[in-house]
Amino acid sequence: MARERIISGSAGGNDEERFNESLRPERIVDCVGQERIVEQLLIAMKAAEQRAEPLEHVLQSGPPGLGKTTLAHVIAREMGAILRITSGPAISKPGDLMHWLTEMKRGDVLFIDEVHRLSRTVEEFLYAAMEDFRVDFTIDSGISGRTVNIALQRFTLIGATTRTGLLTAAMRDRFGLQFHFEFYSVEELTEIVRRSARKLKVKADDGALGLIASRSRGTPRVANRLLKRTRDYAQVRGDGTLSRKTVEQACEILQIDALGLDELDRSLLRSLIQTYNGGPAGIEALAATLGQERDTLEDVVEPYLLQIGFVIRTRQGRCATKAACDHLGLPFAGPKAPPEEQGSLFDED
Ligand code: ADP
């Protein structure tokens, strides 16, 4: 059986989902980090409450595992609303959305994960629901078909996406609040792991918590997973208590290095440096060489490598930096593109 990748983007299976849920902060005051988002949200929620109106629609973007679903739960709870959760790929036609839309009471929250994967037809159908809280819905097809205009309760749509560049401008503009999630600092992750350890009743010293945090790629989901794996290791090979040493030993088994990179990260870098002579290489070519989905590389692997300056995006493709070569102990082939030709961190191709 393929081993679960500790940094994988998805929330994993049911067990993993339950584990995530047990560690999720419930109130906004329990959320660590993302201070700018929290601040804007507190103001928007307070203003909505004073006007006795539902919260505006919210668009959340950022790599997986940074807390987008968590924040949707928190918003619903803070607004005293019911949260309904679905995802872009689960909605293939307007009819799939109808029961969600008609079920909602005033102020309820509909969370659509991977909102960039909605079809154009569904997206256009949503526009009227988001703006006017009414939809034109076609009942039956052919000559007996007719369209009815249905009024909806005022609800809040929260859309989450790993990449805003994949959303149409028309869709983006319909979200009054737009939040981009950043990677967490080691201090923030240490606090998250400390709280998780407390909830899981795991004994861990400061050294262990700090080391887990520094090897978690700025991502709470990875930090919680690493805590879980280290707890297993300490239980089976030690006395159940987490120290710096147990975390180091667990990371060695999991092949997670000092920067939190795993074998897939290193394979991507090695491929870029050795097969493509440092780049530039197109994402499709890299995906084919590594036998991985392009989306996995773009959504899960690459953002952190860009963040720590190991990979840069240029108009011609991805290039490895000297820092990446130094980390892997490989020779650097020289700079590949002038800075003005480099794309921004979260550019789309
Ligand atoms: P996303 O929806 O962005 O993929 P999630 O909301 O599922 O990410 O977050 C993954 C896990 O990380 C959650 O189960 C939660 O335990 C933890 N987490 C996320 N954000 C925070 C935060 N701000 N504070 C504490 N824990 C967090």
Protein architecture, described:
The chain has 349 residues and is of the alpha/beta class. The protein has three domains: 167 residues, P-loop containing nucleotide triphosphate hydrolases (Rossmann fold), CATH 3.40.50; 69 residues, Helicase, Ruva Protein, domain 3 (Orthogonal Bundle), CATH 1.10.8.60; 79 residues, Winged helix-like DNA-binding domain superfamily/Winged helix DNA-binding domain (Arc Repressor Mutant, subunit A), CATH 1.10.10. The protein has 14 helices and nine strands. The strands form three sheets. A five-stranded parallel beta sheet has the order 2-3-6-1-7, covered by helices on one side. Strands 4-5 form a two-stranded antiparallel ribbon. A hairpin with a 6-residue loop joins strand 4 and strand 5. Helix 7 packs across helix 8, helix 7 packs across helix 9 and helix 8 packs parallel to helix 10. The C terminus is likely disordered. Bound molecules: adenosine-5'-diphosphate. The site of adenosine-5'-diphosphate has 20 residues, from helix 1, helix 3 and helix 9. Adenosine-5'-diphosphate binds next to helix 1, helix 3 and helix 9.
